[in-house]
Design a protein that fits this description.
Helix content: 25-40%
Number of strands: 10
Largest sheet: 6 strands, mixed
Order of helices and strands: EEEHEEHEHHHEHEHEEHH
Radius of gyration: 18 Å
Bound molecules: adenosine-5'-diphosphate, magnesium ion
Number of helices: 9
Distance between the termini: 43 Å
């Protein structure tokens, strides 16, 4: 869909960036959490957002799919301005997969049922098709043998991989990850990161908030360092993690590396 009258910068949606954020501000009452954010994510690009707790990383992600309403600025997803008051936000959200720190699986549904419910309700797929796609995505995250398991029977890492498979089953154009491994026991982190590495290799567009610096170094095309609601610096992992230019970045990295 290309609509030049409502979108002056993105041009045709076919070559618009996956995410474009301009002058984004967000305040909760008196508290200014995002204080003018500009960045974009190209199609097929993997961008990791790092920064101290409270710097606004989650709020930024949540503004991309309008779980939070920006106070000012423009957010465009694949050529559609989501901050346009007339936008059909449910349609935009359908194109965005989101994976949080907490997996939020339905406890009374099996892994496969957790994958088919939104496909059937939102995408109106019939049961057979939803199950076929669900099983393929369980395979993709290495859980082909867990279709009938309930969340309580799965480890945290397995539950998070089900959550990733659930997002993938909706055929998203891009994926947002908010500290997907932060709630996991250390020995379970690797399997989840391996799945994310595979997605990156397959060309998925990904915006990932993470404290996993080795993942950021290996997988990210670009690293964005945030502090105090602004982007302090961004660049390749070699630049930002390997040779940070700002004192604040160095201080943060010294703590997490
Ligand atoms: P990060 O993900 O980098 O840790 P967040 O985006 O979660 O940071 O939060 C940034 C700041 O915004 C924090 O001070 C947090 O307490 C505040 N904040 C986040 N969400 C809300 C909200 N719904 N209401 C009020 N304050 C919030
Ligand atoms: Mg956060």
């Amino acid at each position: 869909m290309s609509d030049v009258t409502t979108d002056r910068t993105a041009g045709d949606a076919g070559d618009a960036p996956a995410i474009d954020v301009r002058g984004l501000r967000k305040a909760f009452g008196e508290l200014e959490v995002l204080r003018g954010i500009d960045f974009s994510v190209g199609r097929g690009e993997v961008v990791c957002v790092i920064g101290p707790s409270g710097s606004g990383k989650s709020t930024l992600l949540r503004c991309v799919n309008l779980l939070e309403e920006p106070s000012a600025g423009r957010v465009t997803v694949a050529g559609t301005e989501v901050t346009d008051p007339d936008v059909d936000i449910d349609r935009v959200r359908r194109r965005i997969g989101m994976v949080f720190q907490s997996f939020n699986l339905f406890p009374h549904l099996t892994a496969l049922e957790n994958l088919t419910i939104a496909q059937r309700r939102v995408l109106r797929r019939d049961r057979a098709e939803a199950e076929r796609i669900g099983r393929a995505n369980l395979e993709r995250v290495g859980l082909g043998d867990k279709a009938t398991a309930y969340p309580a029977q799965l480890s945290g890492g397995q539950q998070q991989r089900v959550a990733i498979a659930r997002a993938l089953s909706m055929d998203p154009e891009l994926m947002l990850f908010d500290e997907p491994t932060s709630a996991l026991d250390p020995e379970l982190v690797g399997d989840v990161l391996a799945v994310m590495r595979g997605l990156a290799r397959d060309g998925m567009t990904m915006l990932v908030v993470t404290h996993e610096m080795s993942f950021a170094r290996e997988v990210a095309d670009r690293v964005v360092f945030m502090d105090g609601g602004v982007i302090v610096e961004q660049g390749t992992p070699e630049q930002v993690v390997g040779a940070p230019r700002h004192e604040r970045t160095r201080t943060f990295l010294a703590r997490v590396l």
